[in-house]
């Protein structure tokens, strides 16, 4: 029996979220001008409420199921790493493609709180999906995510018009490996890319003398259900989980509608190529939101 591939459904498939019925209902989720200004200045925006307790519980239960390599929908992942850490003493669970497999992780793409904020931070533009990720750091031995820019892994699409939304499913603290950012680094241009789960400080080798002086990381702690949005050129990373609690999160990567493929190779494992120069669209790159008109 084939497992249903939810990438064929470009709408809510469960009742975990409610689709707004009119402009007024959409506008209740708008970010303030101050929040948008903070993002534009610093390259990230912290502490945006995305999920309630029931939604968090639903998604955490799905992640627990998906961690089992015998899950019937497992072949739908683009990538699956039970442990991507290069340090054998730590664990970093990382996977791409969960939106194709379980209802909650599919429907977070159509969470109106996420869609309105994403459109605003892309310049009030339509929002198209790129791919999702899961990042889980178990208690006591959760591994690092090295300092990096997301777009350094996405140069097979252009122009740079991408946005990342990281959403925590547990309280995220310095002790359990919360995200860290270098404010203003989205203006540094594209840097060489490090191994994502390798030496956390490898990025320093790619910085100019002036950039090293400006490398002043900020830890961003969040409550479960809160998101951090960041520009695709903003330097960010996260440390080990040394606490006795897990640090679980999902990530939604999107871009402004109109981004094109810059490669004739498959853009994600198992996904048919989008020819170089053609607009990103279709089953695997759906338009999520046209924006507030």
UniProtKB/TrEMBL annotation:
Keywords on record: Dioxygenase, Oxidoreductase
rRNA-binding listed as a keyword: no
InterPro entries: Phytyl_CoA_dOase-like
Keyword Oxidoreductase (UniProt): yes
Entries under Pfam families matching the protein: PhyH
Cofactor(s) this protein cannot do without: Fe(2+)
Any one GO molecular function term: 2-oxoglutarate-dependent dioxygenase activity
Name of the protein in its database record: Phytanoyl-CoA dioxygenase family protein
Organism: Panacibacter microcysteis
């Amino acid at each position: 029996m084939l497992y249903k591939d939810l990438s064929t459904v470009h709408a809510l498939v469960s009742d975990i979220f409610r689709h707004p019925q009119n402009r007024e209902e959409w506008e209740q989720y708008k970010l303030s001008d101050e929040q948008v200004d903070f993002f534009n200045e610093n390259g990230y925006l912290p502490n945006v409420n995305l999920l309630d307790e029931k939604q968090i519980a639903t998604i955490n239960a799905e992640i627990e199921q998906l961690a089992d390599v015998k899950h019937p929908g497992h072949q739908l992942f683009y990538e699956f790493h039970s442990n991507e850490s290069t340090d054998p003493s730590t664990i970093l669970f990382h996977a791409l493609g969960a939106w194709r497999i379980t209802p909650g992780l599919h429907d977070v793409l159509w969470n109106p709180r996420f869609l309105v904020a994403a459109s605003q931070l892309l310049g009030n533009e339509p929002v198209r999906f790129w791919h999702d990720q899961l990042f889980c750091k178990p208690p006591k031995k959760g591994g690092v995510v090295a300092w990096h820019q997301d777009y350094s892994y996405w140069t097979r699409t252009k122009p740079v018009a991408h946005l990342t939304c990281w959403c925590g499913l547990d309280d995220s603290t310095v002790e359990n490996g919360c995200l860290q950012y270098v404010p203003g680094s989205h203006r540094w241009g594209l840097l060489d890319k490090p191994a994502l789960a390798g030496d956390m400080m490898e990025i320093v080798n790619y910085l100019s003398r002036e950039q090293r002086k400006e490398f002043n990381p900020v830890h961003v702690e969040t409550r479960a259900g809160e998101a951090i949005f960041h520009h695709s050129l903003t330097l960010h990373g996260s440390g080990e989980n040394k606490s006795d609690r897990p640090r679980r999160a999902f990530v939604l990567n999107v871009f402004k509608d109109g981004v094109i493929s810059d490669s004739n190779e498959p853009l994600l494992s198992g996904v048919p190529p989008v020819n170089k120069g053609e607009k990103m669209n279709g089953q695997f790159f759906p338009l999520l939101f046209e924006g507030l008109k």
